[in-house]
Write a structure and sequence with these properties.
This is BED-type domain-containing protein. The protein is of the alpha+beta class. 34% of the residues lie in helices and 16% in strands. The longest helix has 16 residues, at 95-110. The two termini are 49 Å apart.
Amino acid sequence: MHLVSAIIVGSSSDSESLSAVIGKKSPLQYNNSSEDDDDVKFSCGKKRRLNVTERYKNVSNKMAKYCPICSYKTDDNKLTRHIGIKHEKCLKYPANRSLKKIGMTLGKESRRSISLVLMSNIKEKMGPYWGDVSFRRIAFQLCVI
């Protein structure tokens, strides 16, 4: 089914002028097509929450924190909780004091004015523009800000 687009512009002395586009879908609507999109899928008109890997790849989010013992990573304040639950045997006793010190160290690092971003994330965000040197210079200047 093909939709025909038309613009109706009307004006009268007793009403405000109005214009409408007929036959165009609203950008707020979504369709359930089977196309593979890289965008976040919508269900019931709401954005779904990003998982840890997607948040990790997002450049504008908080700094990722890594567990020094296993491959766990997070961008929330849950690393000390993870270490306390999963790696309690690796901590010096008293464990509460050790966890408090670990939390203070991580807190200082996350409040620094410098955030490290993986170059692969920037390259992925830039996409086809990565090959152009002038765009890479602009990206570098934006990262330094």
